[in-house]
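Intended use. Records like the one below are meant for learning the mapping from a protein sequence to its folded structure. Do not use them to infer anything beyond what is encoded.
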Amino acid sequence: MQKQEHAMGTSPIFGLLMKMSIPPMVSMLIQSLYNIVDSVFVAQLSEDALTAVSLAFPLQNLVLAFAVGLGVAVNALMAKALGAKDSQSVQDAAAHGLLLTAVHSVFFVGLGLFFTRPFLSMFSPSFQVLNMSCQYTYIVITLAFGSLFHITIEKMFQAQGNMKIPMIMQGVGAIINIVLDPIMIFGLFGFPRLEVMGAAIATVVGQMCACVLSVIFFIKTNHGVDISFRGFKLRWRTIGKLYSIAVPSALMTSMPSILVSVLNGILASIHQSAVAVFGLYYKMQTFVYMPTSGLVQGMRPIVSYNFGAGYYNRMKKTIKISILVATVIMAVGTVLFMAVPQPIMRLFNATPETMQMGVTALRIISVGFLFSGVGVVLSGVFEAMGQGIQSLMISLLRQLVLIVPLSLIFSKPLGLIGVWVTFPVSELVGALVGVLMTVYTFRKLQKDPGI
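Structure written out for the chain above:
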């Protein structure tokens, strides 16, 4: 751990940032690919089967929101304590993180058992689709503990500067899921044909395998983070700190689901095909935002460590380099969406009408990518400093607060173009507000380093 601490406090920032960021970038790419493969296999059963699995998305996203929110909080507190050379706070944050993960696991057992059918019945009038969706959702929600613990431990590794092991574990879980999907769904190699239920089992088994391997690797390879519950005392102050970061982060993770649901209603009132266009955009934009999100995962522990150590100039340099790299990544996305929107739309067998709408949408929305990198990075900076509310404010401006009302206003005179324009406008405002908040925060740090 001393070597990793030394690196985060002294190594050249650009090289350190790339070393920390590339593994989570790869990890997120794997995650996205296996989600797509999952849908491809289920779609071969029937359209109803694909619909049934899709209905589970909000509840699955809720699991992810809880897991990522708490994981980011544990990561921030551990990395800050490592920077301050406060080993007791490192152990404290890790132990409380695992305890709260166990509490969340029990919560999702109850949610899965008692809330699944009432929730899904609101979205499906078809008895067959509802039954298939319940079969899938019961399994992936009540047995979500594998995913919850895996992500918490992943963030503990990242807090110590170890990004390779989380990438490997994510890859192992994804590969197991991909291999098991066709076997469990279609009943290959003597296995019973389980269809939608098989997809759920494959997902859960992949998560549990990644979790078990993560625990083993953490016990064998972590250096200095010795978690023990012997004589453990529950500290409400630590829990408060964790949730002050976890809740805003969880809300940010769940925000896309809220935005998609609300905008689908607005778009459907204008033109039904616009809903499909927006859905296609949302699938494609993940491949643009994915590298930037990986960059932020690599940046967070560096910022947290140097914040805890009081190296504010090094923090500033890390932020500037991260913004520059993120802007370059997002600019590449803008160029692609501007230059080749037709081939992108053809990947999804777009009809002529959808093609026309999609080309316009991709070109207009992609302008916002140029500003988005700033907002994404600065939101991650505030998370790293343990200031979850400020991080949430930037994300809300970018992804929800402005887009919805502006879409309602602009769509009246401009139609669909008015909706698409709200994306770059919101990204620009979010970036400007993020910069102002960051400047204000660093001025306060110079006056009062204890904040």
